[in-house]
Specification:
This protein has helices spanning 39-50, 78-89, 131-138, 154-164, 206-220, and strands at 14-19, 24-27, 30-32, 54-59, 72-74, 94-97, 104-106, 125-127, 143-150, 169-174, 186-193, 196-205. It is α/β, with parallel strands linked by helices. The radius of gyration is 18 Å and the shape is globular. The relative contact order is 0.17. Bound molecules: cytidine-5'-triphosphate (CTP) and calcium ion. Cytidine-5'-triphosphate (CTP) is lined by residues 78, 97, 99, 101, 103, 128, 130-132, 146-149, 161. Cytidine-5'-triphosphate binds next to helix 3 and strand 9. Residues 15-225 are annotated as: Phosphopantothenate--cysteine ligase.
Length: 225
């Protein structure tokens, strides 16, 4: 059969994937976001579906072509993404937080366009909820994968995030490395668990990275249904 062995590693599993950069409103025509293209999250959603999972893709701001055949729940802010994830959380088996969630948002989103006035303008930001950390605190049967985009000290930051957010696996990449990070079709990641580095995945397509990451996760998740 075509549908056996490695092909259906996530058969019967419900998987939530978040992708893209959240949009934090300043006013009706302006917002804060980041360079995330959504490509890594889209690749994970596509491969998870190929591996037999029931995929729920939640995407904020993206520039990449969305995967065909997977419906997308569109969200804007970190708060919106958190609500969307929570609606699926109880029933999910695996959550992959590939989204670049904004750390801060404007204290208030103005209801009308802010007019130009003085020579300086101060925008006050307040911290967003950490979605992954919150899931890490309330997880039961769920398997949690976090991402970390870093510009150095990969291992230190990765291990810190993994523990702080109670993740099962964390995929860290150096966004300054060639062929890794934002906008490009390739990535290179190091995968960590509680004991340290599990695997170093050299530069390859984001789909191949997704396949390796999900294969490791599937091998560690609870028994096949
Ligand atoms: N994350 C999240 N909610 C946030 C911020 C981050 O769920 N408000 C998730 C990301 O989706 C990612 C992981 O946490 O899976 C790590 O994100 P990262 O930005 O690297 O970590 P931070 O804890 O925000 O630390 P810093 O930005 O200071 O490096
Ligand atoms: Ca952050």
């Amino acid at each position: 059969s075509l549908l056996n062995g490695d092909e259906r590693l996530l058969s019967g599993k419900k998987v939530i994937v978040t992708a893209g950069g959240t949009i934090e409103r300043i006013d009706p025509v302006r917002y804060i976001t980041n360079d995330s293209s959504g490509k890594m999250g889209f690749a994970i959603a596509k491969v998870a579906q190929e591996l037999g999972a029931d995929v729920h893709l939640i995407a904020a701001n993206t520039s990449a072509e969305p995967p065909v055949g997977i419906s997308i729940e569109k969200v804007q802010s970190a708060d919106d993404m958190y609500s969307a994830v929570l609606r699926q959380w109880e029933e999910s088996d695996l959550v992959v937080m590939a989204a670049a969630v904004a750390d801060y948002r404007p204290r208030e989103a103005a209801q009308t366009k802010i007019k130009k006035k003085d020579s300086t303008f101060t925008l006050e930001l307040v911290k967003n909820i950490d979605i992954l950390e919150s899931l890490g605190r309330s997880k039961k049967h769920q398997f949690l994968i976090g991402f970390a985009a870093e510009t150095g000290n990969l291992e230190t930051y990765a291990m810190d995030k993994l523990e702080r957010k109670n993740c099962d696996l964390l995929a860290a990449n150096d966004v300054t490395a060639d062929g890794a990070g934002f906008g490009v079709d390739t990535n290179a990641v190091q995968i960590y668990d509680r004991g340290g580095m599990v695997e170093r995945i050299p530069v390859q397509s984001k789909e191949e990275v997704a396949r390796k990451l999900l294969t490791i996760a599937a091998g560690r998740m609870g028994g096949v249904l």
